[in-house]
Input
Amino acid sequence: MKRSSRRWSFVVVGAAVTALAISSGWTAAQAQSTAKFGSYTLAATAPGFEMWEDEPAANAHPEGGGQAPYSTSALTSGGNGYGLSSVAWPGATEANADKVALLLFPSTAHVAPPGSSPVIQEPVPDAVRQLAFTALPLANYPIRAEARTGENRPDASLDGQATTLKAHADGVLAQATATMKGADGAAGFSFGNAETVANSVIGETSGAASADSKITKIDIGGVIKIDSVTSHAEASTDGVTAGAASGATVVQGMTIAGQAAYVDEQGVHIGEQPGQPANAIASQIANQALTNGGFSFHIAEPQQEQSGSSGSYTAGSLLIVWKPPGNPSENMFFIALGGSRVSVSAAPGSSFNVPTAAPFVPAPFASPAAPATPSRPGISSTPATSASPTGSTAAPSPSLGAKPIAAVVNGIAGQVVLGLLGTGLMFFGFRRVADDILDRASTSCPLETT
Output
């Protein structure tokens, strides 16, 4: 009887080892196929320049505005992508006036019957509604390339005489690019070539967004001239921690009334570069030209935010307020150069793996370290340099606790070994049990009568 019990124990142990090999392989395969992100939003916006116009007598403020060129991209949970590039983009509400009007178009109207004071509600005639629904789409802003997931084509483009607009959107990449080959704006504002690019991309382990813009040969009223303004912003996240968002806006080759000038976080200065101020005559010429032309400068500092797996960055901007002389309507123009911006946020996906509890090791108490202050290059006339790393974090020492068998014999080779070992034990146990059954001596039934 003892020998039979030992043989059955081989069968039980073999079955357990085989089950362990199968379950560890299934768990590993499931871990590899689990989605990395449960939710995410990756957005980027790259304006070339932004301009608004206003006057005291306007019915709405500002009276008008636009961005030229303009690119934006976005990826959101569920593989939703969107890309848009445009020239003189008036904003989402104004550009989609047809959809706003269709949404607000009434289905009924209040009327007063002839000779009667009470007001009754009557449905709008079908002919009127049909006319409105046919004509309102003409109010849709046409100068754009727009792509979004769920449509038949992932790419859109618009080629003009001096403009090229492209947009792409699929489940992992949204991109928009706008280029212009020179333009003359209102009231003496002109520029050379300009390009804006916005990217949102997601992979298996991280998501990122970037925005870049460059505008050249800027001329504002013949007084302010700039060779180029470049703006960059980028951010990334792995669903647990957002990387350090960064960017910069660089103004190069700026002159005011023919006098060299430069830009930093404190404003606009007359002179070749910091530390070398212009002489009194050059400063007087430039300042007199700004005063006579109705110009003033302002600096928008960069904005950086980071919290957990979310981060955002808005590059600095050079703001120019211009009130042209000889202007009885008191029109004012607000011009922003730079200001590329990105934002990212993500949360990890769910995992169905059964966690194994690690041995509890109490950590020594320590006071929390003060958070480091991030570098903020802001807006400058020279490219900003990144700060050197101040230190590194020591890697944690490996745990010396016991490991389960599936962890010791890891990978496909280990699972094969466990499977063969379990199968062998089961085969040996079943064979010995079968031999034992066949070798047993026959016995007579006690109820049998002779």
User: Anything to note?
Assistant: The longest helix spans residues 2-33. The first strand starts at residue 37 and ends at 54.
